[in-house]
Amino acid sequence: MNWITNYVRPKLTSLLGPREVPENLWIKDPETGEMVFHKDLEANQWVVPSSGVHMKIGARDRLATFFDGGQYALVDLPKVPIDPLKFRDSKRYVDRLKEYRSKTSMEDSVLVATGEIEALPIVAAVQDFAFMGGSLGMAAGEAIVTAAEKAVELHRPLVLFAGSGGARMQEGILSLMQLPRTTVAVEEVKDAGLPYIVVLTNPTTGGVTASYAMLGDVHIAEPGALIGFAGARVIEQTIREKLPEGFQRSEYLMDHGMVDMVVHRHELKGTIARLLKVLTRAPANDTAPAEPEPAGEAA
Questions:
Q1: Average pLDDT of the residues in 247-273
Q2: Pairing mode of beta strands 218-221, 261-262
Q3: What is the dihedral of CA 191, 109, 180, 145, to 10 degrees?
Q4: Which of 247, 223, 250 has its CA nearest to residue 235?
Q5: What is the CATH number of the domain that holds 227?
Q6: For the segment 113-143, what is each residue's pLDDT rounded down to a tens digit?
Q7: pLDDT at residue 299 in the model
Q8: What is the 3-state composition of the chain as percent helix, strand, coil, each rounded to the nearest 5?
Q9: pLDDT tens digits, 229-252
Q10: Could you tell me the pLDDT band of residue 31, with boundaries at 50, 70 and 90?
Q11: Neighbouring residues of 217: CB distance < 8 A, sequence distance ≥ 6
Q12: Which of 8, 45, 42 is nearest to 27 (CA)?
C-alpha cells in the first residue's frame, strides 16, 4: 500500500494532473473578444488576423520588422539622474523603474536605432508603451534629442514611432521641460534639410502630442489609434457637449485634416520608404531588365 501511495499515485498525478499554462498563450481581441494564439499574433506583427485590430507592439519587435532583414544598430543613449525629485506615491519611483526595466529589458521608454529600409539609410526612434505607458521623462527626452542629433550627424531622415500616455508625473517639471527640448531638436533636423516622419500609434496622447509627435513633415497613423491631447471625458466635461463617434481615432482625424494618412502596419515600411525617396530625391529602384541594344550591321 505504501508503494502505491508513495510512488504510483504521485507519478500518475504528474502525468495526468493539471499543468501550468503561460498567461500570455492566448490573447483576447479587444474588439471581438476572439482568443488569438500568441504565436499567430506575433507572426502577424501583432495585428489580429481576423479583425485587423492593431495591438501594441514592443520597441524591439517594431525595429526588427521595420528594418531590412531585421538588421539594425542601437544607438547609445545618455545617462540621466534617477529619481531627481525623490518621488513616491504608492511605491518609490526608483522601485517602479527597476520593475519596468526588469519586465521590458529596456533602460527607459525609447529606443533609437540606425539601419536601412529598402536600402535607404535612416535613424528611427520608437516609444514602447509597455515601459510606464511610454511616458516622457528625462531619459526619453534625451533619447529623442539623441535621435535628432544622430540624424543630423549622419545626414539621414528621422522616423519616429510615437506611443505614449504623456509626460511622466514622477519627474514633474523636469518631464515637462522635455517638450521644448525635443521641439528644438526636431527643428534642427528640419534646418538640416532632412525629412522627419512621425507614425502615431495607439495611444499617442498628452504632452507628446504637444511637442515632437505633431511636428512631422508627414503624419502617418495606424488604424484605430487613439490620438489626442486631453481625454475625451475631460473634453466633454469642459465643453459640456457629447463628442462625435470615433472622436480622436485615426480615421476621424484623417477626415478632419490632422493626420495625413492611415496605414496598415504591414504596409508601413513600404509607404515610409516611398515617401522618403520622394522627399530625399533618392533614385527609385529600377528592377526591370534593360532593353537589349539593336545588333549592329556586319562590317
A1: 97
A2: parallel
A3: -30
A4: 247
A5: 3.90.226.10
A6: 999 999 999 999 999 999 999 999 999 999 9
A7: 36
A8: 40, 20, 40
A9: 988 899 999 999 999 989 999 999
A10: confident
A11: 190, 195, 196, 197, 279
A12: 42
Cell of 50: 481576423
- Yes or no: say if 198 and 162 are a contact pair by the CB < 8 Å rule: yes
DSSP string, 186-202: HHHHHHTT--EEEEEEE
Which range marks the domain in which residue 42 is found? 25-55
| Whether residue 101 is found in the same domain as residue 160 | yes
Task: Count the domains in the chain.
Answer: 2
Which pLDDT score, from 0 to 100, does residue 10 have? 61
Query: CB of 162 within 8 A of CB of 127?
Result: yes
153 and 105 assigned to the same domain: yes
Angle subtended at Cα 122 by Cα 106 and Cα 137, rounded to the nearest 5 degrees: 35
The reply to whether 65 and 48 lie within a common domain is: no
